[in-house]
Amino acid sequence: MHPRRGYRFIHALLVQEGHRVNRKKVRRIWREEHLTVTTRRRQKIRTGASVPMQAEFPDHVWTYDFLFDQTLEGTTLKILTLTDEFTRQSLALRVAESFTSMDVKDVLHEVIATRGAPGFIRSDNGPEFIARDLGIWLAVQDVGTRFILPGKPWQNGFAESFHSRLREECLNLEVFYSARHAGVVLDSYRSFYNARRPHSSLGYRTPDDYAQQARGRPAAPLCGQSTANVDVRPSPG
C-alpha cells in the first residue's frame, strides 16, 4: 500500500487482488485513520502554443525524459523513462550515472525490437534527445519527433505525470546504494506499475489491462466495471 494514494486507488487495488470490500467502507477507514491525501497543485502560467499530437491508439506516441536521484553516498543517478502516452505503459526504466544519445538509442532499439516502432516520440530539447545521430536513426525507423518548447515542461504532461508517481511511490521511499541497486528496484516498480497499479484516468484499470482492451484483446473488468463503459481516450493526470 502506498502512503500517498487515496481511498479510490486502494479500493481498486484491493478488488484487483480478490478482496470483496465496499468502497464507502474504505473511504470511512481512510478518513478515520487520517490517511486522506491533500495535493497541492502548482499554478502554471501557460503562454504560447502547445505541442500538437494527441495519442489516439497504442504506440501512436511515446514520450521519453530524464529525472534524477542519488545514492546514499551522494552519487547522482540519471533515470531514463519511456512511456506510451495512450496506454500509460512504462516501456523502459533505465538508470545510470550518465547517458549519451547512443545509450538512449540502444534503449529505444531494444524496445522497438520487441514491440515495434511508435509513430512519434515526444521529448524536451535535452542534448541526448536532439543529437543528430539519434535523429537520423529515428528517421530511418520512420519515427517522427515532437519537441516541446524550452521551459514548458507541461507540454510533456504524460512524462511529468509519470515522474510524479514514480517519485512519490518509489524514489522517495527507497535508499539506493548504487546504480545497479536502483535498477533492480526500478524494474520491480515498473512491473507493479504496468500489471498491478490501477490508474484513475484509465477507469482504475492497469496499463497492461487497458492496452489489451485497446488492442481488441479481452481483459478482466476491474472494480466491477464493464469494459463497454471504459473510455479509450486517456488524458494526462
From TrEMBL:
Keywords carried by this UniProt record: Plasmid
GO BP terms: DNA integration
Family annotation (Pfam families): HTH_21, rve_3
Region (Disordered): 214-237
Gene Ontology molecular function terms on file: nucleic acid binding
Domain Integrase catalytic: 54-215
Transferase as UniProt keyword: no
PROSITE patterns the record matches: INTEGRASE (PS50994)
Protein name: Transposase, ISMyma01_aa2-like protein
Source organism of this protein record: Deinococcus gobiensis (strain DSM 21396 / JCM 16679 / CGMCC 1.7299 / I-0)
Lineage: Bacteria, Thermotogati, Deinococcota, Deinococci, Deinococcales
